[in-house]
Amino acid sequence: MKISVSFTLWLLLSSVSAKESTECQRAFPEDIYAALREMTASLVQLKADMRFLQTQGTVIKAMSEETVSDFAEQAAQQKTEVDKLKQQLQVQQVAFSAALQTSGESTIGPFPSDTTLIYKHVTTNIGNAYNPNTGVFTAPVRGAYHFEWSVGANGDNSHASGAVLVKNTENVFVAWEKQKDGFMSSSKGVTLLLEVGEVVFVRLWSNTLALDNANHHNTFSGHLLFTM
Known about the structure:
Residues 36-95 form a coiled coil. Keywords: Coiled coil, Secreted, Signal. One of its GO terms (cellular component) is extracellular region. The protein contains one helix and 13 strands, in the order αβββββββββββββ. The chain has 228 residues and is of the alpha+beta class. The protein folds into two domains: 1-92; 94-227, Jelly Rolls (Sandwich), CATH 2.60.120. The strands form three sheets. Strands 3, 5, 6, 8, 9 and 11 form a six-stranded antiparallel β-sheet that branches. Strands 4-1-13-7-10 form a five-stranded antiparallel β-sheet, with no helix packed on it. Strands 2-12 form a two-stranded antiparallel ribbon. Strand 8 (161-167) and strand 9 form a beta hairpin. The longest helix has 91 residues, at 2-92. The N and C termini lie far apart (137 Å). Residues 1-13 and 15-28 have low confidence and may be disordered.
C-alpha cells in the first residue's frame, strides 16, 4: 500500500515538474527572443539616428564652411574696395607750393634760351605730384588744376624778369616785369584741364632774371580743383 501511494506521488510530482519545466523552457527562450528583438530594433533605430545625425552634421559642417568661406570672400572684397577708395582718395588729394631757393640769395639768369626753373624749397607736396629735382608737376588724375607762379628780380635797366608756365610743350601764360632799378615782380594764375601723365612746369624766359632769397619771391604752386 505504501509502495503504491509513493509511486503515485512520484508520478504526480514528475508530471508537475515536467509541465513546469516545459513551460519554463518555453517561456525563457521567448523572453530572450523578445529582448533580442527589442534590442535589435533599438540598435537599428540607433544606427539610423546616428546616420541621420552624421548626415546632418556633414551638412551643417559644409554649410558652416561655406558660410565662413562666403564671409571671408565678402570681407576680402570689401577690403579691396576700401583700399581702392583710399587710393582714389589719396590720388585726389593733390596740392603743392615751392620756392626757388632753400637758403641764401641767388640770381638766376640770364640764359640764351628758355630754361626750366627748379623750385627746391618745397613747403607743401600733398600727393607728391611735384618733383623738386626736375621742377615738373605731373597730373596723377584727369581733372581741372589751378596753378600760380611768381617771378621777380632787381631791375638793372637791361634785363626783364619773366617766367612762362608750360603745359607739356605749350607756353600757356607768362608773368613779366621790367624796370630800371629796384626790385620788380610779376605773378599769374591759370586753370588747366590735364589728362593723367601730362606735365606742367615754369621756364625762365631767355635773357631774363630771377632773384630769390629767404623771402621766397619766386614761387610755383598748384592744386587739383576736381576730377573729371
